[in-house]
Amino acid sequence: MQCPRCLNTDPAFFYKGSRGWYCRRCISFGRVMLEEEKEPVVLKKQKEGSEEYTLQYPLTKAQKEIAVKCAALIEETDVLLHCVCGAGKTELVVLSISKMLKEGKKVCFAIPRRQVVLELRERLAQYFPKASVIAVCGGHTEVTDGDLIICTTHQLYRYYQAFDLLILDEPDAFPFRGSAVLHGIAQTSCRGHMICLTATPDEELLEKVQSGMMCVLKLNRRPHGHPVPVPHMITAPSFLLPLFLLRWLKAHREHPRMVFVPSKRDAAVMHRLLSLREECFMCTSSSEDRDEVIETFRNREAGLIVSTTVLERGITVPGADICVYRADSGVFDEAGLTQMAGRAGRSFQKPDGDVLFLCGRKSSSAEACVKSIQEANR
Q1: 14 by DSSP, 3-state: which?
Q2: What is the pTM of this model?
Q3: Mean local confidence (pLDDT), 255-265
Q4: 3-class SS of residue 251
Q5: Coil, strand or helix: which one is 249?
Q6: Which pLDDT does position 1 carry in this prediction?
Q7: Secondary element (H or E) of residue 210
């Protein structure tokens, strides 16, 4: 037996009810009976001219080469775009999206996190002014069909065999990473090929490349031509780390500053202490007003925000400097640290942002992150 939705074959997850066999591994998305043939979801045809696009800035020579190669490769195989943070991964797939829309094919852009879905929907709606670009995520499920669908990976269960091109943004990120259910649902939603976008591919993606199941295209240069800021590390006894943090905050007070901490408890304590000195925002997975907090912080010329890993990916704050407090914590792995460091130096006006790792002891993950960024900059 195999679940038609999540592709589970483990007998332990199958159960026979009054209507027949069904899979319990993906039961949270609704019951799918194995005896019933699952019909592909049929989406409406695109509007005329939906493939027309205009980018906010022209692509560099390197970006154009990657974009053209990607658009050609997806006709035959899956593609991994392995690009440094801030390389313009979204812009690299615009040509592929346009090509598919012109051919009357269906395209979906799937992202692990809701906040990024909403932001990307706004950006792609500007790029494709004649297309109906919709966001499908928590709080936005009234409309689920459009010319270009942007959704969280959880919402892919709605689209069995619906897409000719599925673009997976940050497939190595939580909650998609390590979730056999979400991996299976992503596969069954796509009847064509996938493009995976990430700066930190995991072992599963790299194995697909090595086995020939997926082609890889690399881009290690940002559009402004400046290298990715290399983090500098300070290792000191834990009781001294707050002093180094305060000194860093003061030295960079003319820029937006993002301070990442390991846990929600750390975020609450840090927010309370820093708020005694200046206005400070906080963002965690429990923040009910997360969207408003992020938008308000962005509108501050030299704001300060304390966050957990919830903001490590997909969020761009022009001109931001980054500090990872207790970067030696087991919560932070190499990929996460690389993503957090990648929030810095993304704007043309301030391409040389500053990144600081504050550690209570030596950290192999932090050292590996520094080394990988240095290698990418060569």
Answers
A1: strand
A2: 0.91
A3: 97
A4: helix
A5: helix
A6: 87
A7: helix 203-210
